[in-house]
Amino acid sequence: MTNLTRASVLLAHGSSDPHWLEPFGQLLQQIRSGLQENHARVELAYMELAEPELCQQIRWLVQEGYRHIDVLPLFFAAGRHLRKGVPAMLEALQAELLAAGLVVSIELHSPVGLEPEVAAAIRQVVVRQLSR
Length: 132
Fold this sequence. Notes:
Keywords: Lyase, Metal-binding. By secondary structure, the protein is of the alpha/beta class.
């Protein structure tokens, strides 16, 4: 059974440089191809300097009927953007949606860089590079 109300948004910082953006599009495609057919929808958004911007991506998903949005930051750590800027953006968006009569749950998760597997992968790459 497909979950018709839940979607996830991968959040990257953003850049006007298409070379910087390219790996994120590739990552999105790899994630989608690795998911079960019945998994919730996954999209990509940026904080700034690139489209789609986070709030716009969420608005589009809400227009399509999604009512629970998980925001998964593709960041190494939780800096000022993730501690203050993004929560304020999401709070304002939820208020906007509620004023329009839409109850939407938006959950901001911890940055993926804080996951132990990411730290282990970085350690392996650095050790390999230093061992050459």
